[in-house]
Automatic annotation (TrEMBL):
<dbReference type="InterPro" id="IPR034904">
    <property type="entry name" value="FSCA_dom_sf"/>
</dbReference>
<keyword id="KW-0408">Iron</keyword>
<keyword id="KW-0547">Nucleotide-binding</keyword>
<dbReference type="InterPro" id="IPR044304">
    <property type="entry name" value="NUBPL-like"/>
</dbReference>
<dbReference type="InterPro" id="IPR019591">
    <property type="entry name" value="Mrp/NBP35_ATP-bd"/>
</dbReference>
<keyword id="KW-0479">Metal-binding</keyword>
<comment type="similarity">
    <text>Belongs to the Mrp/NBP35 ATP-binding proteins family.</text>
</comment>
<dbReference type="Pfam" id="PF10609">
    <property type="entry name" value="ParA"/>
</dbReference>
<dbReference type="GO" id="GO:0005524">
    <property type="term" value="F:ATP binding"/>
</dbReference>
<dbReference type="InterPro" id="IPR027417">
    <property type="entry name" value="P-loop_NTPase"/>
</dbReference>
<feature type="binding site">
    <location>
        <begin position="120"/>
        <end position="127"/>
    </location>
    <ligand>
        <name>ATP</name>
    </ligand>
</feature>
<dbReference type="GO" id="GO:0140663">
    <property type="term" value="F:ATP-dependent FeS chaperone activity"/>
</dbReference>
<comment type="function">
    <text>Binds and transfers iron-sulfur (Fe-S) clusters to target apoproteins. Can hydrolyze ATP.</text>
</comment>
<keyword id="KW-0378">Hydrolase</keyword>
<dbReference type="Pfam" id="PF01883">
    <property type="entry name" value="FeS_assembly_P"/>
</dbReference>
<dbReference type="GO" id="GO:0051539">
    <property type="term" value="F:4 iron, 4 sulfur cluster binding"/>
</dbReference>
<comment type="subunit">
    <text>Homodimer.</text>
</comment>
Length: 392
């Protein structure tokens, strides 16, 4: 083999390490490298982006340049950006195995654990809980998807700091990806040098409207929106899918049960009696939908004061009361997964678009949210009757 051939081969191996930020696959596997050659120390790499105006063009170009420069003998890199043809995009969709007519999470063979985060009343911190659960699970190395199903009150993009729009490939939508922050990524790579870090893929109706425009839709439109999020969006292989549902027992809750009958419910409530009463109704809806309530998250429990004392702004013990009531109503144990205190760091993290489990992991709310996520992940997955992806 000539030196020229060796450099070309080494360049392709280096490009194997470049991961497309949206597809989460090497660009060499998804047809994005049109050509890659080396001549007199200069690497010329032709990259095909999925669409013109790709929001991650600069990121991909920089990653290609950095990967190529790791090869001994390459001193300069010329990255030439092009775009896939309709035929190439069609081949990409086939390669990804995406079908807009199928809901992969409703398949009996799906290995993705699906949780719907629900509440009886609004304002109990359901969306904050969803964002922090997703962040904590991603920090544990999991591939997490989040569907912001609260169409009228969407807030997940802001809580996760997402400003990038989805990428649309005909009828397939590539959702924005939230990677681990630098500190969490470095900690993960130090402890797991041969395993990719986790991430969060997110879709929300808020990504398709201008500014702070309100959404005024009725039942059929809401059902169709949720259905499209589950069928048209390419999430890839996920470990966990979280859905942030609107409060109450209305259209979206019913549609979710129809589209994702295997989803389990995580019920969020404050300790306040009024909130617990309404949360109980949201939990007992599972008797009609035949879904399981996986546990209760008590939010806004006692606030720790500067002098170390606590103030029970919304009372105490509501989570335990709700757990007992649902056990009696449903006929099985519904555990209290944890109590998350009122904490300024939780609010400030949400305002900054960085969940508290990332921004202040040692704070009272950060450690409590992490503990809740750990308890959710400890629950066993039922693999009976499922086809496992084994190769012999």
């Amino acid at each position: 083999m000539s030196d020229h051939e060796s450099l070309d081969t080494a360049l392709m191996r280096a490009l194997d390490t470049v991961i497309d930020p949206e597809l989460r696959k090497p660009i060499t596997e998804v047809g994005m490298v049109d050509s890659a050659t080396v001549s007199e120390g200069v690497a010329t790499v032709a990259v095909l982006l999925t669409i013109e105006g790709c929001p991650l063009k600069n990121t991909i170009e920089q990653d290609v340049r950095e990967a190529a420069l790791t090869v001994d003998g390459i001193e300069q890199v010329d990255v030439r950006i092009g775009y896939m043809s309709p035929e190439q995009r069609s081949e990409l969709k086939k390669l990804l195995g995406h079908s807009s007519r199928a809901n992969p999470f409703a398949s009996p063979d799906s290995l993705t654990k699906v949780y719907a985060v629900v509440s009886g009343k609004g304002g109990v911190g359901k969306s904050s809980a969803t964002a922090n659960l997703a962040a904590a699970m991603a920090s544990a190395g999991l591939k997490v998807g989040v569907v912001d199903a609260d169409v009228h009150g969407f807030s997940i993009p802001g809580l996760l700091g997402i400003t990038q729009p989805p990428t649309k490939l005909e009828e397939m939508i590539l959702p924005p990806v939230v990677p681990l922050p630098e500190a969490q990524r470095q900690a993960w790579e130090k402890g797991h040098p041969h395993q990719d870090p986790g991430f969060i893929k997110v879709i929300s109706i808020g990504m398709f409207v201008e500014g702070n425009q309100p959404i005024a839709w009725r039942g059929p439109m809401l059902h169709r929106a949720l259905e499209q999020f589950l069928t048209d969006v390419y999430f890839g292989d996920l470990d966990v899918l979280l859905l942030d549902l609107p409060p109450g027992t209305g259209d979206i809750a019913i549609s979710m049960a129809q589209l994702l009958p295997g989803a389990q419910l995580l019920l969020v409530s404050t300790p306040q009696v009024a909130a617990v009463d309404v949360a109980e109704r949201a939990g007992t809806l599972s008797l009609q939908t035949e879904q399981k309530v996986a546990g209760i998250i008590e939010n806004m429990s006692a606030m720790v004061m500067p002098d170390g004392s606590t103030m029970e702004v919304f009372g105490s013990g509501g989570g335990e009361v709700l757990s007992q009531r649902l056990r009696d109503a449903l006929g099985y144990e519904v555990p209290l997964l944890g109590s998350v205190p009122l904490d300024v760091s939780l609010r400030s993290g949400g305002d900054a678009g960085v969940p508290v489990v990332w921004s202040a992991p040692d704070s009272p709310a950060g450690s409590a949210m992490q503990a809740v996520a750990d308890r959710v992940l400890e629950q066993k997955r039922d693999l009976a009757g499922k086809a496992l992806p084994l190769n012999f």
